[in-house]
Amino acid sequence: MTDPRPAPTPGPEPSPSHRGPEHAEPPAFAREVWNTRVGFILAAVGSAVGLGNMWRFPYFAAEHGGAAFVALYILLTFVIGIPLMLGEFSIGRRAKLSPIGALRSVGGRRWTPVGYMFVLAGFLILAYYSVIAGWVTRYAIGIIFTGFPDDPGAYFAEVSSGVNAIGFHLFFMTLTIAIVMGGVEKGIERASLIMMPALLILIAGLAIWAATLVGSADGYRFYLAPDWSEVLSLDTFGAAAGQAAFSLSLGMGAMLTFASYLSSKESLPREGTVIAFSDFGIAFTAGLVVFPVIAALGLQEAVGESTIGALFIALPGAFDAMGGIAGRTVGSIFFVALFIGAVTSAISLLEVVTSSVIDEFGWPRKKAAVTMGIVIATVGLWPAMSLDALGAYDGLTGNVMLPLGALGIAVLVGWVMRNPIDELVIGSSERFRPFYKGWLWMLRVVAPILLVLVLWSTIPGAFEALAALFQ
Ligand code: TRP
Q1: Would you say the CB of residue 90 lies under 6 angstroms from ligand 1?
Q2: Please, where are the H alpha helices in 266-364?
Q3: 46 lines ligand 1 (CB under 6 A)
């Protein structure tokens, strides 16, 4: 494999892995590593699985052609999701650094600003993600201890504003900081090993229960009836490509950072495939929960006006209408599952920022996690107080910064990085060999085209939301 272009000048600094395992000077302090392969996989799946799976995916599928969208989504997961994830993995594991240092090490100095954009994206996403996670926490606690509110709309308005919203946002940030302070193995890996199996069991249990509901067939039909004409539109294509990248936490270095703690024994293509399919599986299963529940009460139309609020208004209403202990039990389980998904995503966001500060400024982990966590919590006060601000943070990051970041990854690995295929070969079995060339061309040509399409369709909306804020 030869590079299509001459090496950029100044050339990329040699990465630690190039010096071989027994290089002369040991690093100032040893980089943390995952204790087990399963720990890494569950942490990465934890990052990927979140609100995007439990609400955004089912909702998109129902809106954009049902099973036809699901088929397109699977295709795009192969064409851009997995290739981009393997791109982040190969940068992270080769450089053994967090995003800023890793991009600089693999691409040369001119890539440093892209690294900063990744960290800034992590900052902004966590700031508003934690606000929504705070609502989820409040709902879970409320349903478990006091049952459903009489008026879900009024309840949502109360939970998502004022002292409630700020208080639970700060509580959630504190929890996230506490886990990240514990480090890669004792904090993130341990939390994922406990929480992710629990999440899987809860979601699977809910899906089985939902199948027993009267009217569940209508729900499945609403969710999955294939409408192939939808799939041919540019809009749907953009939505599916964007969702595939968002759902896998790509475009801001979360997967890159997690891979930087990985040893050369691990097979990147194998882990990447497992992670992508687990993420898809959970998203798909969440739809098998949400739609039967909603259809059992004939609430499909409520989904049509979906903003994030619908999750907090339509579903509690549906669970409540089921009545009695059953509705309350499954309602609590649903919100606890959502809470777990949010925690494990949030820790990966804070880890990107924390590890960047550790690598760039040499701060100790605890100081880095606490300081950055407090700054992010502060930046999150605005979206905690204003749904418009929340929407603008979401639009700016999800619609602009993440697709741009993903484009950066595709170009860096496809056109700039030296011998990227070599990194995939390390630790992998022979049977992945036939796919490597195709992987590179996905990153060189196909992913950039699709990502430009995504940006084309989303940038205007994101800037309108921003402009509206300052009017
Ligand atoms: N993947 C997460 C979800 O589906 C959301 C997300 C997007 C994310 N980018 C991220 C989470 C980066 C952690 C890190 O909800």
Answers
A1: no
A2: 268-296, 300-304, 308-322, 324-361
A3: no
Torsion of CA 169, 183, 250, 408, to 10 degrees: 110
Cβ contact 168:138 at 8 Å: yes
Taking the model in full, what pTM does it have? Answer: 0.90
Phi, psi of 109 (to 5 degrees): -55, -35
The model's pLDDT over 148-161, given as tens digits with 9 standing for 90+, comes to: 888 888 898 899 98
C-alpha–C-alpha distance, residues 88 and 102, integer Å: 10
Q: What are residue 321's phi and psi, to 5 degrees? A: -65, -25
Q: Is 430 left (phi over 0), alpha (psi -120 to 50) or beta?
A: alpha
Mutate which of 119, 246, 311, 400 for ligand 1 pocket (most atoms within 8 A of beta carbon): 246
pLDDT digits over 49-62, tens only?
998 898 788 888 88
Rounded to the nearest angstrom, the distance between the alpha carbon of 26 and the centre of ligand 1 is: 34
In terms of C-beta density within 10 A (0-12 exposed, 13-18 middle, 19 or more buried), how is residue 69 classed?
buried
User: Are 204 and 211 contacting, i.e. CB atoms less than 8 angstroms apart?
Assistant: no
Instruction: Scan for tokens 């602009």, then name that residue.
Output: 400
